[in-house]
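Hello forum,

I keep getting stuck at the same step: I have a sequence, I want structure tokens, and every attempt I make locally crashes halfway through. Rather than fight my setup again tonight, could one of you with a working pipeline run this one for me? It's a single chain of 537 residues.
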Amino acid sequence: MSGTGISRRGLLWRGGLLAAGSVGASLAGITAQSAAAAPPKWDPHVADAKRRLGSLREYLDALDALGDLRQINREVDTHLEIGAIARRTTEINGPAVLFNRIKGHRKGFRVLGAPAALSSLPKARYARVALSLGFKPDTHPLAMVEALTRAHDLKPIEPITVHSGPCQQNVLLGKDADLTKIPVPLLHDGDGGPYLNTWGTFVVGTPDGKWVNWSISRAMLVDGKRFAPLVVPFFQHLGVIAAQWAEQGKQAPFALVQGAEPGVPFASAMSLPDGVNEASFLGGYYGKPVELVRCKTVDLRVPATAEIVIEGHIDFEKTVPEGPMGEAPGYMSTHVRQMPTCTVTAITHRDNAILPVVAAGKAVDEDHTAVGVPASAIILNALRKNGIPATNAWMVPESALHVLAVTVPKDWPKRTGISSSRELTKRIAEIICDTRVVIWLSQVMVLDDDLDVTEHRDLMWGFATRTHPVKDQVVIPQRSFNALMVCYGKEEQESYLAPLLAFDSLLPQGPERPRNAAFEDNYPAALRKKILDNWVH
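Reply #2:
Ran it on my machine without issues. Output:
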């Protein structure tokens, strides 16, 4: 890629997709598969066979080689234009967009839109997710969920500290640490202001130093020295840790990391348990430690290859209005809340740095891919650890993560000791309500695993034909939820508590079970092979 600081080094091309052994090398034993297949074989000793892309620029190399990146060299405006282009390419499954010339900003800062939305490749829509997680671009999304599910049982590998990294090629301190130098876009018509953070990772640590958390939270620019993050103290890890500092009468040190290696946002969006460090989880997942550098003005470490790092302190005593903003459910939020102020002490960045942005809206965008795939894995892991032989769990991205599909094998009564499908559905819903990721959901479907729930035809056919409109509903009266969801009322949004609806969409057991008339299920294997070999492909 000429003039961008991005190379094609080491990329191999074969048949329109990256070849095995290149940027998209898959995890050994994990292959594309349908939901009807058995869980893939897994060998924890070869977990490091995944190809980790060590920087955002390596990731952009990979997208460019796939034809899934478009560079825009004409001048664009941070006032709505960048947001509109990013939203349009997201909605039409277009390529990621790299804006190289920003109106009113000197050369040296760029903006990346749609960094992990669905790709422009018809046969590899989840290519950006796959590459971010170390897989071949055409890996089936349920294989990625399975790998992340089993990664929860791998031993974490602590990050290592390196002396220096590209993220500190430029160090701005004092009056030079000015946020207005960064091309922060106004993404939606109606946003409360330009949003400095939509894809970056907040790094915060507890006062005792025992837990360092990585998480994503939106943050609105206030001025050259301040911005306002969305902080919820009672269930959001950023808020929980910042509140611990406030209880001691201190401001919480933070680092906001923009443009880290592509696996970092997925780990940051994963909702891991309290006390678990995302950096260590990511190291265990890849089988090798993440490299970090020490910040310049706060006692924290950040990914060495990040594009931009903003350092400072969170002050609960000084609040500013934050919001509204176009959000993950696909609507403009109406809430304006008083949020703590983040005051900047340093900005470090790479040469020709890149700010990734997400123009949230109607699904599917990064709010749904980066949360949905890891959260599906958390749910699948929880179900299995609680005795449910779930084959797959899939937070449906097109539902803006409001709907979860869970599949179980035909012999679930024997394997669970539960005889009633309604009772199984209720048990599954209760387990899900005990996870942190339940906050995204309003509905759960429990289905047989003859369906590929990532395929809309399978999902809608299975749900519509197997669910009684009255008898098959199970209601969980109250559980925590995300107050951005517009399907709930004002009282529920203020309390962060609302009902969850689960559907028993399982076929009956025994002689009443209807026989599937589909090609794959109804016809003899020899005949299917003959037809596929000679007639219809």
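Confidence is low (pLDDT under 50) at residues 1-49. If your local run keeps crashing, start a new thread with the error log.
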